[in-house]
Automatic annotation (TrEMBL):
The keyword Nucleotide-binding belongs to this UniProt entry's keyword annotation: yes
Domain characteristics, as noted in the entry: Composed of three domains: the N-terminal N domain, which is responsible for interactions with the ribosome, the central G domain, which binds GTP, and the C-terminal M domain, which binds the RNA and the signal sequence of the RNC.
Protein's UniProt name: Signal recognition particle protein
Residues annotated to bind GTP: 106-113, 189-193, 247-250
Amino acid sequence: MFENLSDKLDRAFKVLKGQGTITEINVAETMKEIRKALLDADVNYKTAKAFTDDVRQKALGNNVLTSISPGQLLTKLMSDELTELMGGTTAELELKASPTIILIAGLNGAGKTTFTGKLANYLKTQKNKKPLLVADDIYRPAAIDQLQVLGEQIGVPVYANRDSKDPVAIALEGIALAKQNGHNVVIIDTAGRLAIDEAMMVEIEKVKGAVKPHEILFVVDSMTGQDAVNTAKVFNDRLDFTGVVLTKLDGDTRGGAALSIKSVVNKPIKFIGTGEKMEALDVFHPDRMASRILGMGDVVSLVERAQQQFDEKEAAELQKKIRKNKFDFNDFYSQIQQIKKMGNMKDLMGMIPGVGKMMKDVEVDDNAFKAIEAIIQSMTPFEKSNPETINQSRRNRIAKGSGTDLAEVNRLMKQFDDMKKVMKQMSNPAAMASMMRRMP
Ligand code: GDP
């Protein structure tokens, strides 16, 4: 996400950071570089100019020139201004009404249906809600199928009426069913088109008028940059939506849509999609995003993602096992599955301050765990629970079975042993204290 922009901003700052004393001319030059970086990121010209004019004025007003660490001060200023540009504060969903009705709008291919599934999953698992999905696309039977598959995957029911050609009626039937079955959120996935189309707008306006939604979320593909912003503007003029969902941010190295939408459309970004999986959805926090863009990481989100994936009861069980030195390959395998669910590796690393920049040219393979998984899967249940019994002949068999080689199996066994040793030490306060004492 945002790699190109981060990189260019970093370079713009380098000039300033390298200077012993800073002059007004240096600041002006840096602002010019920053403006260029924003334009390259597909931020519209007016927004980019207003932004840099503002930062420059504040920088001079805040005595950046005489400060001891002008680079740091300017970074802080930039971070505040970027946060403001993206909406300032986090915009929460309005979920008080029961049922809360959420209408999902957007063009085909934007990621509407995927987001509908992700949102239901988020509300169910993070907000303790009982959602019902409504498939309200009467033109593409495949869209109904897709929503039903997602619903099944996340364990959320989907209302569809394949015989009806009336989107207003289908939406109302869905809401009636939700009331009957005690659902407190109804998410309506509406029909899109390939491009902005009058008939589509009229249809969705009718649905809006009939169901009176509490939230209308406009879904748009962030990779389309300024097009995304323009489409958002047209939809907003007609629908007056309550929030934007930016999808495919995992593939967006520029970030123009994220930076311009608020200032052009004046509606907040509420969610971002960061992958195809149902878990790849984040609430949008402008401050955290600014921090990531400036290469300062986002530890808060990283910890939150970990908390979402790790169940407290499971964690306690695991600790017990570690203390008793009973951590085995079953546990190891399930830990890998949980880490994988946290999202794409490069994205996760980018949340650690400083690491994103360091890793920018390194290919991080999301299949990094494949070989390890194959090796563990080739073990028998007995071997998984009793790693110490895995001798040479067993290792040979496992290597063959997993399509890896003996060296790779040996390496994993060694890593596993080392990990167990460290875990054992960390779970023993006395050993931990003695280890700390030995540290330089
Ligand atoms: P719709 O036509 O608007 O309903 O779009 P879909 O939900 O069918 O999504 C279109 C394609 O984009 C699918 O292949 C999705 O898997 C993919 N997609 C959706 N959201 C994301 C995202 O956040 N990241 C990535 N990488 N792909 C996504």
